[in-house]
Specification:
heterodimer, A: 324 residues, mainly alpha, two-stranded antiparallel ribbon, two-stranded antiparallel sheet, 4 strands, globular, B: 340 residues, 13 helices
Chain lengths: 324, 340
């Protein structure tokens, strides 16, 4: 037990150290790296990924996976854009509601029909993508600019971007739920050993169901912010978001086998992957080198590679220590 | 034909498993036949050579990738990187045969070098997947996620994200050429369909008859038991991911040959999902240990034919996606019922 927490400590600290180093690097190298404009735009843009990754984090901690988050976000953005003339609240509820429906379907198929999460959410991804395209009529849907809907993605609250504020609040809620509620502890128990959790009488099915529902809602909300930030519901956006989210969660040190994880470290993972792109932009702006935007996915992949190798080495060491 | 199991269980359960396997095989094949019969009655001009041609041509790349994916899934793994490996193979080949790096005078030599290098490069990346998964004991979904993300980036960096247009019959033969054409009667069998058929037969034979195939299924059935009984688990897995990479590389060449251009942003996009769906609908056990290559072929044909049927009858492509989603869930659910 002690060794396991040591590994959590190391892997969660690892991402924080990397994040700190990257910020230090950017701060020492570029003039406006820690300027208000850069910070707020990075936060504003990455809050969508933060929301999706939060849901993914919970799903992965139960030992599952949710491949439908990107398509669900796209669906949420389309629904909220269509409903945006009726006001911010209706638009938001619509987008989150669309995510809720996908989440309910995922939960039902995985828990009741007992289909592997991988396949169930893969099918949900196709379905959400199809539904988004049907609703949007194969094109992006412009949002209403009169109803205040765009403030949600573009507005500020005392200089803090509103989407970042929403993400921050939800991360606090997520952290509290994970660490201080029985449902949160059950999430980790399921990931640790599902059969044992069931035998102990934990509400395994209910919690698993809820985890996918939460992931759907958070993806829908990310879609709402997407629509409001870019002024349009975009049915084909969100491609590859699921894998970016999984990468963030893994970089944050959450084990893909479940049973171990941290909400805060996931946020650090999101920021780390987001800042890599930001640093690349600054580097190109300096004009010494010119790395195309295509390098970002290569660099992200390499980061993921380093993290998973480190993680496996650390886990191996912990296992050997436990065996002795 | 290629329904194969790990080891011989006791006779009674063997009969039961065989019965279930037969039902599964029959149900996928039955679904395909039902679809064809439906189309004969309700789709205009269905019984035409061109219909067969269009469907086979479209399904070929999915099946080529699906063959490798079936072997990977048979070991209990998954390969998310196939689409990105297609992009890499599709990016490197034109760079070589358009003489961008070094000048190869003879066009056929250039094309041959381009094809071999492209496919081998994809195979090498596949081997890297296998190495990552076995050496560091990383789950396949994460191990191959690395190249899923980085692979397309590598292809984009190689081409600087630019479209590489070309018109070179010697190369495009792999996507546009035809075999056994009969003057005024038959346009001939598309080359990629021929490749698909050869690969399916070869892989089905390997899985069912060869030691390597037995080892793949043994690993998928019970990895620890396989290791204890002397199966070189790591080695077999690396080869399986390597084969998946080779298949993806080949499919990448076919796609760019058909398009007359290579676009690193587009080649193979979403292919991992299509291939996995074909494998799942075909009746291969997603947890490994039981696999059928012909099932994958039938699965891919069913998915293709459902889409074709809907499009031919005026259903929009977006709605067809919903049907595909339902199809995958239903197929896997039925599979689960069969085992229970």
């Amino acid at each position: 037990m002690k060794k396991t927490s040591f590994v959590t400590f190391l892997s969660s600290q690892g991402v924080l150290i990397a994040l700190a180093l990257l910020i230090l690097f950017g701060w020492s190298r570029y003039d406006n790296f820690l300027g208000l404009f850069n910070i707020t735009s990075v936060l504003r843009y990455n809050s969508m990924f933060a929301l999706v990754s939060l849901g993914m984090c919970f799903v992965i901690m139960t030992g599952g996976i949710d491949l439908s988050v990107g398509a669900t976000a796209a669906l949420g953005s389309v629904v909220s854009a269509i409903l945006s003339p009726h006001g911010t609240l209706i638009g938001t509820l619509g987008g989150v509601g669309a995510g809720l429906i996908i989440g309910l379907i995922n939960g039902f198929v995985i828990v009741r029909l007992r289909i592997l999460p991988f396949i169930a959410t893969l099918a949900a991804m196709l379905a959400a993508n199809g539904a988004a395209l049907v609703l949007a009529g194969d094109q992006s849907v412009s949002v209403s600019y009169d109803s205040g809907f765009t403030d949600l993605g573009q507005g500020d609250f005392y200089n803090i971007p509103i989407p970042a504020l929403i993400a921050a609040v939800l991360y606090v809620v997520g952290s509290v739920v994970l660490n201080y509620t029985s449902a949160g502890r059950t999430v980790l128990a399921i990931g640790g050993n599902e059969d044992a959790s069931r035998l102990m009488g934990l509400p395994v099915n209910r919690v698993k169901f809820l985890v996918y529902v939460a992931s759907g809602c958070l993806s829908g909300l990310a879609g709402v912010i997407l629509a409001s930030q870019f002024g349009a519901g975009q049915p084909i956006e969100g491609v590859g978001w699921e894998l970016a989210a999984i990468a963030s969660v893994v970089v944050g040190g959450t084990l893909l086998t479940g049973g171990l994880g941290s909400v805060g470290a996931t946020l650090a993972g999101v920021m780390l992957l987001g800042l890599i792109f930001n640093v690349l932009n600054f580097e190109n702006g300096m004009g010494f080198i010119s790395l195309s935007a295509y390098w970002q996915s290569v660099i992200r992949g390499v980061f993921l590679l380093i993290v998973v190798i480190l993680q496996s080495q650390l886990m191996g060491r912990a296992e050997r220590a436990e065996a002795q | 034909m290629s329904q194969a199991r790990t080891q011989s269980p006791p006779p009674a359960s063997a009969a039961r498993v065989d019965a279930i396997a037969a039902i599964m095989r029959f149900s996928t094949l039955g679904a395909l036949i039902a679809l064809i019969i439906f189309n004969v009655f309700f789709t205009n001009h269905f019984l035409a050579m061109q219909t067969l041609d269009v469907n086979l041509t479209q399904v070929a790349t999915i099946v080529i990738v699906g063959v490798g994916m079936t072997l990977v899934i048979a070991t209990g793994g998954i390969d998310l990187s196939v689409g990105s490996l297609m992009a890499i193979s599709g990016a490197i080949a034109p760079i070589i045969f358009l003489n961008k790096v070094f000048n190869i005078g003879e066009v056929h030599v250039a094309v041959a070098v381009a094809m071999i290098v492209a496919v081998l490069l994809a195979g090498a990346f596949g081997w890297f997947n296998g190495w990552l998964i076995t050496r560091f004991r990383i789950q396949p979904i994460i191990g191959t996620l690395v190249l899923f993300i980085a692979g397309r980036g590598i292809a984009q960096v190689m081409t600087n994200g630019n479209l590489q247009p070309f018109k070179l019959d010697a190369f495009q033969w792999i996507g546009l050429g035809r075999l056994f054409a009969i003057q005024d009667v038959y346009r001939g069998l598309p080359i990629q369909v021929a490749i698909m058929i050869v690969l399916v037969i070869a892989a089905a034979w390997v899985l069912k008859r060869s030691l390597f195939g037995r080892q793949i299924l043994a690993i998928g059935g019970n990895e620890r038991a396989a290791r204890l009984s002397g199966v070189p688990v790591a080695q077999v897995k690396r080869w399986v991911y390597c084969i998946s990479g080779l298949c993806a590389g080949l499919a990448g060449l076919v796609v760019i040959a058909i398009n007359s251009s290579s676009d690193a942003n587009q080649v193979g996009l979403g292919m991992e999902l299509d291939a996995i769906a074909a494998v799942a609908v075909g009746g291969t056990l997603l947890s490994g240990g039981r696999a059928t290559i012909t099932g994958t072929l039938i699965g891919a044909l069913i998915i293709q034919l459902v889409r074709y049927t809907m499009l031919a009858n005026g259903v929009p492509d977006d709605v067809a996606k919903l049907a595909k989603a339902g199809l995958i869930v239903a197929a896997v659910w039925l599979q689960g019922q069969g085992r229970a």
